[in-house]
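Table S2 (continued). Query chain:
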Amino acid sequence: MKITFLGGAGCVTGSCHLVEAAGKRIMLDCGFSQGRREESERLNRTHPVPPDSVDAVVLSHAHIDHSGKLPGLVGGGFKGPVYSTAATRDLASIMLPDSAHIQLADAEYMNKSRKARGQAPITPIYGLEEVMATLERFVSVPYGMPIQLFPGISLRMLEAGHILGSAQVELTLQEDGRERVLLYSGDIGRPSRPILKDPDLSSRPDVLVMESTYGGREHEPDQESQHKLERVIRETVKVGGKIIIPAFSVGRTQEVLYALRQLDAAGSLPGIRVYVDSPLSFDATGVYKLHPECFDEEALSLIQSGRSPFTFEKLKFIQGVQESKALNSMRESMIIISASGMCENGRIRHHLKNTVSDSRNTILIVGFMAAETLGRKIAERLDTVNIFGEPHKLRARVEEIHGMSAHADSGQLLRFAGTIAAKADAIALVHGEKLQMESLAGRIRTGSVPGRTVTIPAVGDSLEL
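Corresponding output:
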């Protein structure tokens, strides 16, 4: 029995791990890599193991850096089931087609200039045909209910509190008279956050594979984030600028809308419109409303009283391309929330292209930006950033709010590990950058039980279970 780390090891995107036990191969997540364009393109077009050698996939949640390669895996010959929660299945049914659509639209847009420069055209990694074949393979698993995947392998999905439908994946493995429990955390959410339930802390695995995105950083208090959001909006409106918020369509967009709704209800939102320019965000917000079983008491009480946690009078969802383009010609102050969250594709790049060089505007960063992404380069306030392969001066103001992150921070990760891994003899840290993982590993080792190992695997490393 072993687990091999195929992606998301030593980095934040491209999550993918392979469990081998009882004669079967089970893939945990199958995500897109984001970062350096050429390297990401290569990783996203290839698979580290033959797709037809994988017996099943278990998907922790629907974010593209965890699910985006699934259609390519199916197109390459994978014929097994994809297990997930019902909410993750519903989100995947809109996110994977959207991924295919964005690839096609971006290819068409970039090929115009490539043709003029005499360069070969680029092609999408996959299309709708592969996506539809993938969605047919989904099998929904309720939270907390053990199911047998194969003889000697059973699965439980436990609430992760990260986004709608997110789950920790618990596998009970039996081979040659031995039994081992492996828990893969997926992405761990933050306790006491609005909308979703807190992470489930009931598992007691022998081996814990855990994310570490914010392994060395603490989030600012919620109240401070709310005050900063209000301040940034007021200061930008005062000079006649626009506020551009890159946000993942699933999770972050809904949290930002929840915060803006609170400001509006308190009379603290200036008289400007809020535009969500992402058809996927509109669809995803609809999926949220279909799954109240994932909500905490505060969000449930709003719904039961006939109010939505995500809508208010000043909000407008943008659907069509022409409507999206029209936002860039409007001169009044506004808030534009658009995907993708790391600014690597989608409509956000068009809005940045039109606003990033105007000092009146503000780019508001509300989530983690992986290394080498456009979002990270903006967060680092580089003098010039490339958008669609062309340089643009970064003159817009850049502000960051870390308190809206859907990832647990250092202290919360440490408490998670201290509870979940109370009896574990091994912990492996994934889904993090080097400094964040090393910081968390050091803190875990300080209070670790005798005999426990804490490792930071590289891509291709294996851990015997």
